[in-house]
Automatic annotation (TrEMBL):
It comes from Hydrogenophaga pseudoflava (Pseudomonas carboxydoflava). The gene is bcr1. Keywords: Cell membrane, Membrane, Transmembrane, Transmembrane helix. The chain crosses the membrane at residues 12-37, 57-75, 87-106, 112-133, 145-164, 176-195, 231-250, 262-283, 295-313, 319-343, 355-382, 388-410. One of its GO terms (molecular function) is transmembrane transporter activity. Residues 21-414 form the Major facilitator superfamily (MFS) profile domain. This is Bicyclomycin resistance protein. InterPro entries: MFS, MFS_dom, MFS_Efflux_Transporters, MFS_trans_sf.
Length: 419
């Protein structure tokens, strides 16, 4: 992993300012992750109230990621041009409207449209800070900040489990989404107060003919090397964490909805601790010259072993195994800052958004496909447990295949002169 851009320290933030900026962005990303993951906790309620099938549930959760994916390419160009502050404030206004629309929806189609709108609105909540960090922080600190942003996202997912269950009797799911709309408005005020304005790079840095486009990014060999695991492995981890772990616990492992919420809490707490640990060790690994792709090559197969155990154990596979799968999959999260560092700083917004598009297109496809497979296997006369096991087995084979493509590219890179 090598940066191809001209690095300059004249944009680095003083430490106290950097901390305040991080906390402002972290609050917003916490809320976006809570909004993203809350459908897993609400799935029993929404399914009962609206008579949703597994494929409907997958589509509803995937609608968020579809909206997310729709904005990624223009988002990257806008981030490079206008900067994180201006872009995220505009996008969060759309997120407020999406939460309000979800709270008022009376049909599945209304819920789906609201989730798409919400996904579009929060789609800048990680890309905006990571674009800023690419210029405002040193490379090793960027890796730590990325992991700790993901940690705050895990905090949001933790908050989407038991705390949401506790609030449901008081607020109901509609009141919950009205409250989320108000909290997003509050986060906009914090961002406006704390995040610095963007200063454009000198024209010499962005003078290349493709400086405002995506062609060079899509063709970059490092980007292509990381794309398969971003799409299947990273996207699949998010799909499981934000949706399918919940239905598995209820319909396969026999959990009650309340116990499933406890399981989701445990999964997300494990993810939180994992990302905190990555944030602690990443700067040390960077200083020792251990690249992200080597860590991914060594560590990601752990998730395949756990996934195989889940399929074999079936009803005996509860939340601890799903937590182990998600934790084993966190190795692939190192690919995101690695892609940003491998391309010029002036293209950070586009590089990150292009890779995020890959990830969330994968989330949408995996969430929908698992639900589709569960329903499709019913046509073969399989019972509920067998249908879920079959769907997860197919997903596991796809994960191994994507890793194989990545590993081939990584070994070819190491074998090349200067690799």
């Amino acid at each position: 992993m090598r940066s191809t851009g001209t690095e300059s320290g004249n944009h680095l933030l003083p430490p106290l300012v950097a901390v305040s900026v991080f906390l402002a962005f972290a609050l917003t990303y916490f809320l976006s992750a809570l909004i993203r993951a809350v459908t897993a906790t609400l799935s029993p309620v929404l399914s009962a109230e609206l008579s949703l099938q597994a494929s409907d549930l997958g589509l509803l959760a995937g609608g968020y990621f579809f909206g997310f994916a729709l904005t990624q390419l223009p988002l990257g160009s806008w981030l490079d041009r206008f900067g994180p502050r201006q872009v995220i404030l505009a996008f969060l206004g759309v997120a407020v409207a999406g939460c309000a629309a979800f709270a008022m929806a009376t049909s599945f189609s209304g819920l789906l449209a609201a989730r798409v709108l919400t996904g579009m609105g929060v789609s800048a909540c990680l890309m905006a800070p990571l674009t800023g960090y690419r210029r405002w922080l040193q490379p090793a600190t960027q890796l730590r900040a990325n992991s700790w942003m993901l940690m705050t996202g895990s905090m949001g997912m933790v908050a989407s489990t038991l705390p949401v269950q506790w609030l449901m009797p008081m607020l109901g799911w509609r009141g919950l989404f009205w409250s989320l709309a108000a909290l997003v408005l509050l986060s906009m005020l914090v961002l406006a107060a704390l995040v610095p304005r963007w200063h454009k790079e000198p024209s010499s840095v962005v003078a290349a003919p493709e400086a405002s486009g995506y062609g060079a990014i899509w063709r970059h060999p490092y980007f292509r090397q990381m794309a398969p695991i971003g799409f299947i492995n990273y996207g699949g981890m998010v799909a499981v964490q934000t949706l399918w772990a919940g239905p598995w616990m209820v319909q396969v492992a026999g959990y009650t909805p309340q116990r499933a919420a406890v399981g989701l809490f445990g999964i997300n707490l494990c993810m939180l601790l994992s990302f905190w640990l990555w944030g602690m060790v990443n700067p040390h690994l960077s200083r020792r010259g251990i690249p992200a792709e080597r860590l991914i090559a060594w560590g990601l197969p752990l998730s395949f072993v756990v996934l195989a155990a889940i399929v074999v154990l079936g009803p005996r596979a509860g939340w601890p195994l799903w937590a182990a799968f998600c934790v084993g999959s966190t190795f692939v999260s190192l690919s995101q800052p690695a892609v940003a560092l491998a391309l010029p700083a002036a293209a950070a917004g586009r590089a990150l958004s292009a890779y995020n598009l890959v990830i969330f297109a994968g989330v949408f496809l995996v969430q929908w496909a698992i639900g589709g497979l569960v329903d499709a296997f019913a046509l073969l006369g399989w019972d509920t447990v067998a249908r879920f096991r079959g769907a997860i087995a197919v997903f596991g084979l796809c994960c191994v295949s994507a890793y194989g493509v990545f590993l081939f590219g990584y070994r070819r890179q190491r074998a090349a002169p200067g690799g």
